[in-house]
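Marked as duplicate of an earlier ticket. Keeping the data here for the record.
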Amino acid sequence: MSRSDRGAPWTTFLVAAGLVLLDQSAKTIVERSYALGESTRVMGDFFRLTHVQNPGGAFGLFRGAGDAFTALSVFAVVLLLAAVWRYPAVGAGRVAYGLVLGGALGNLIDRIRLERVVDFLDFGFGDLRWPVFNVADIAVVVGVGLFLLLSLGRGGVHAGEVRPDGEDENDPEGAPGS
């Protein structure tokens, strides 16, 4: 199978680049428009824009481990880039890769630039609130979810998993002459 048949990664990179642009633009607008801790109700008490900066991991955990999360983020981005080239995705799998890669890059840019991640999407009721998050976080969750859905489906995520006739190319019983 030629490189182009296995799926050029350009779709993945375009999705990732678009996502980084959207994520960083939104974070810049929040940083310029809101003081740290400032909040505006968008949909009553349910949805607010709240400017927070997270020096730790997901949900504000491990606040003292900023350098470790930066290193982990760099490792994740390198691993994702290697996976894009080594295991090219097909169809929606390319979008899934792009979402995860773009989200990882968006938060990595913050970690390098600010040593923390800018979050601003705030959902909940009263004092019962979900941890504040950002566009990059949404992309990672949606991308991983899409990978899971595609993995459960017959079509698979990566090139070469299923032939156009629906047979698994790695299944010896489906091979011609068996």
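See parent ticket for discussion. Helices lie at 3-7, 10-33, 66-86, 92-114, 135-152.
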